[in-house]
């Protein structure tokens, strides 16, 4: 994936898929939620893996474009979208493979 400066995935999960991603160029900040927001910055060459229960928002907060590589298993079937409202994450909809990606 390519990430122009300031782009974000928005809060989402990966349906029933576990996955991993690695930053190939630039840096990305991943925000996760477990009752409060936690942030980690993944510089070029750094990555992370996650299980199917993982909800996050990935953002290019750097001053240059970023590139990342993502893998999912099983194949990514759907993503639930969330918004942070009133101090909690609220599901706002589901995107299915083939709809927008």
Question: Can you give a write-up of this model?
Answer:
The protein is an all-beta fold and 101 residues long. It has one domain: Jelly Rolls (Sandwich), CATH 2.60.120.10. Helix content is 0%, strand content 56%. It is built from no helices and nine strands. A four-stranded antiparallel β-sheet has the order 1-7-2-5, with no helix packed on it. The protein has a three-stranded antiparallel β-sheet with strand order 4-3-6, with no helix packed on it. A hairpin with a 3-residue loop joins strand 3 and strand 4. The N and C termini lie close together (12 Å).
Order of helix and strand elements from N to C terminus = EEEEEEEEE
Q: Determine the CATH topology.
A: Jelly Rolls
Beta-strand content estimate:
over 45%
Structural class: mainly beta
Mean pLDDT over the residues = 95
Number of domains: 1
Number of helices: 0
| Count of DSSP strands | 9
- Can you identify the CATH superfamily? Jelly Rolls
For the biggest sheet, the summary is: 4 strands, antiparallel
CATH architecture: Sandwich
Q: What is the class in the CATH system?
A: Mainly Beta
Q: Tell me the Rg in angstroms.
A: 13 Å
Helix content: under 10%
What order do the strands of the largest sheet run in, or round the barrel if closed? 1-7-2-5
Distance N terminus to C terminus? 12 Å
